[in-house]
Structures are given as C-alpha cells and as structure tokens.
Amino acid sequence: MSISGFKRGYHTIKVMLQYGLDKSLPSKLKPWYFRALRSCLFWLRNKHPQRSGGERFRLAMLELGPVYIKLGQMLSTRRDLLNDEWAEELAELQDRVPPFDSALARAAIEAELGVPIDSLFDDFEDTPLASASIAQVHCAVLKSTGQPVVLKVLRPNVEQKINQDLQLMEQVASRLEKIMGNSHRFRPAEIIADYKSTILGELDLKLEAINATKLRNNFTDSDALYVPYVHMEHCYKRLMVMERINGIPVSNIEQLQAQGTNFKLLAERGVELFFTQVFRDNFFHADMHPGNIFISKEHPDNPFYIGLDCGIMGTLSETDKRYLAENFLAFFNRDYQRIAQLYIESGWVSENTDVVAFEQAVKAMCDPIFQKPLDEISFGHVLLELFRTARKFEMVVQPQLILLQKTLLYIEGLGRQLYPQLDLWQTAKPFLEQWMSEQIGPKAFFDKAKANMPFWSEKLPELPELVYDNLKLGRKLLGSQQQLLQKYVRHQQQLHKSNYLLITSAVLLICGTLFYNQSVTPLLPHSFYGLGVILWIVGWRQRPKKH
C-alpha cells in the first residue's frame, strides 16, 4: 500500500472511531480480535458521546467525503433496516450537505463559461438552492429566454478526494485478491473498477447532461416521469445548466398529504418506472435517493415524478436482462426449480452445482417469507437473501448487477415510504409478463424483422453480387483444396516408398552382419552390405522435402 493510501486508510479509521461508530456495532459483530485491534488504537476515543448513533454516523460520513456520503444516502431509504432516528439523520445527506463558499462557486462557474456570469444570467443567487456531496446548485434566470434555470457546479477539489478514496479501495481490493488466491466467487478488484467508472462518471457534468437528455427523450410522452430540459450549450465538465422545476421533495410526506397526493398510484408508478427503464429502455437511473426525486404539484390525483441528477446510469446486456426477467417471474410464481436452473444457465452459479440441492436451499429461504402478508415482505431483502443463498453454492459475483440491486433497494425504500401497503408483486408481475411475451413468439419475431427492415432493404440490391462473389470464392477454395489434397497424397506416397527402401536397406545390413559372423564366404555379406547402402541412398533421396 502506498504512503498516501496508508494515510487515507488511517484517516478513515480515525474518523470512524472518533465518532464512536464501533460503539454502534452489535456485540456479535465484534469478535475478540476486533476488540484487540480496537484496544491497540487506545488514543482514538469517541469525541461525541453526547450525540445519538444516527447523528454520529451522519457526521462521520460528511467528514469522510463523497464516497461515504453516497453510502449514507442509500441507507437512508432503507427504513425497513434502520430505525426512524437513523433514517431521519441520514436523509439529511441527500441534499443538506454543508455548502461551500459562493465566491468559489462563482469563480468555478465563470472559469467554465469563460465569461462573467452576468453576461449570460440574471438574478444569480449566491445562496445555493441545494448542496450535495459532489456539487451544489444555484438559481438564476437565462438572459436569452428569461427562463428560470439552475446552475450545478462541482465542489472544489472533489475529484482529488474521490480519487484518494478510490485508490485506497483499489489497494485494499488488490490485497484481498492476493489473500484469496485464485478464488473466482468474489472479485473485489472488478467490483471496485466497476464502482470507480460509475462514480467518476458522476464527476463529468457534461456526461450527466447527455444522460439527462437521453432519459428525458425516453419519457417524452410519459405521465409517470418528467426530466427537466438541459441547456446543452452551457454545459461543461464542471458545470451544468438546466430548467428549474417546481416540485415537492418525495421525502416531504406532510406536504404531499396536504395537497391530496394519490400515494398508491405514486408508489405503483415508481415500481413501473424501474422496470420500464431496465427492461424497455435498458438505461436506468441508478441514484434514485429521495434527494434526487421530486413530485409534481399539478394534478395530485394523477402525480408524476421529477427526476434529477443523472450522473449514475446503468445498463445490462441483453442476456442479463432476459435471465433477470425470467428470474423475477419464477420468483413471483414460486417456481424454485426454474430459479435454480436460471442461475446455472446464466453462469452466475457453476454448471457443476447440484440443481436439486440449490432448489431446496432457495425454497427453504423463500417459503417462510411468503407466509407473511405481501405488504410485510421486502423484495429488496428477499433479493439480498437469494444472492446470499447462491453464494453458498459458489455464486460468481456479478459487478454488472450491483447498480441494479442498489436501484431496486432505492425504489422499494421510496415505495414503502410513500405507501407502506405497496404490493410490489402485483405491480411488477403484469409488466414482466407483458415484456416477456413481447420478447418471445411470433410478435417478437415480426417486430425484430420490422426493426431490421431498413438494413435489409439497403443491403438487398447487393445480395446477387454477394451471392456470385461467394460462389466464385467457393469454387476457388474448392480448387485450392483439391490441389492441396493431391499434393498431400503425393507426399504420402513418396514418404511410404522412402520408408520401404530405408527399412529394406536396414534388413540387408543386418543380414550382411549375420552372415559375416558365420564365417561364410566374404562375397555374400559384402553383397548384402553393398545392396543395403545403395537402397539406403536411394530411399533417403526419395524422402519428400520439408517446406
């Protein structure tokens, strides 16, 4: 580990211990060696004993920086895992991170624009509208159109802080792989590399602007999701300008109740949005914590989501999408045998796995869960338990599914918060059944043929020429193959003849030696010797030459 990595690692441990996070761990997670190591760091004491556990955790995440704040944001949505005190504290990490100096924000914005702010915007507000782990947002009015906009600018030196944490994670992952040897079940280096590409993408606001525009186009006519318009002409790597929206934060339940929001419809649309993005578009928002989600104020009886912060987006391969959809449906139908088969077919579990034993393990895990009322079942928790069961059968960790798992946890956390009676199964199953029917059968075949029709109509005039060229090439190859075959036959004939002569010469030489030892007339053995040498010379000259 490098010196900088060691320093960052020590700083991370120091902050955690000074906020007393070790005190929050249950006793069963603190074995004797953990307590021994903690005793060795006796000078690092809890400096905030008067604060609650949730507050200490939030403050520690704030001090450690963006990578850890992201962790806190995800945990804040899991009210089925955290008590209310912890969840409320961590919710403040979503958009209430302490802002940085507005003078620095102005300087950073003008550095990206290359001109003074006042030349392009009116009424720039120095007090930020929101401040998050990586960037903060300021309001203004676009001079050219008079439209209210927001300017999102990266925090100073945020790239350096994130790179330090990522470097530390890479070094730790590398050490873990060396310790584990050739084990392929857990691939920490690959997981960190995948996370690195994800979070570094969030540091490029130009890329976020492109993602937001693509997501907006995917839901142009949707009554479930609205993505604000992005002014691409004013977007750069560290600056993004977009339409200012007027919505209610999804976490503000009281305000949503006051306007008479249809919570059941809103929760169901959240689930539909997840599956639509994953299976229809294969382009899903992977950072859907409450700080990035607002609810429309118009038509509370028919509410829609407003999505922000498209820095982290996810995609899946067609194969993973198909297996995932089938897995969900098999799970909804309690078809444990199909779940086991899908894990093996997809390569997530070794093909040598005992299917029957795996099926029984899945059934043993799922049956007690299904005995509960649907509104008490956490699908995110079930998914995690399913992967934990699969790991016992040497499941290969799938880095490409990590973002998907995190997004599903976010969605379910939001859905349960909005409408605790949310029936995730009843909402998701019809969508998946329809999607699968569109992927298999005559309709899917004709749809794919229709989609490929422009390509084939363009290539059709070239088809006769391509057929002629291939036939001509085939005839040429056939002739070449015949020539090679004839050459090979001649080579084998020559080799056979040469071997025959060499073997005969060897026999004659042996016979000559035998007769010579029998003290017969010298003429006979010498005749055998002479004839043997002549045949050896002829046989050697007959051997085919190597090319």
Automatic annotation (TrEMBL):
Pathway recorded for this protein: Cofactor biosynthesis; ubiquinone biosynthesis [regulation]
InterPro entries according to UniProt: ABC1_dom (IPR004147), Kinase-like_dom_sf (IPR011009), UbiB (IPR010232), UbiB_bact (IPR045308), UbiB_kinase (IPR050154)
Coiled-coil spans in chain: none
Subcellular location: Cell membrane
Enzyme class: transferase
Residues where ATP binds: L129, A130, S131, A132, S133, I134, A135, Q136, V137, K152
Database matches in Pfam families: ABC1 (PF03109)
Domain ABC1 atypical kinase-like: 93-342
Membrane topology qualifier: Single-pass membrane protein
GO BP, sorted A to Z: regulation of ubiquinone biosynthetic process; ubiquinone biosynthetic process
Cell cycle found in the keyword field: no
Ranges that cross the membrane: 523-540
Function: Is probably a protein kinase regulator of UbiI activity which is involved in aerobic coenzyme Q (ubiquinone) biosynthesis.
Name of the protein: Probable protein kinase UbiB
Organism the protein comes from: Parashewanella spongiae
GN (gene name): ubiB
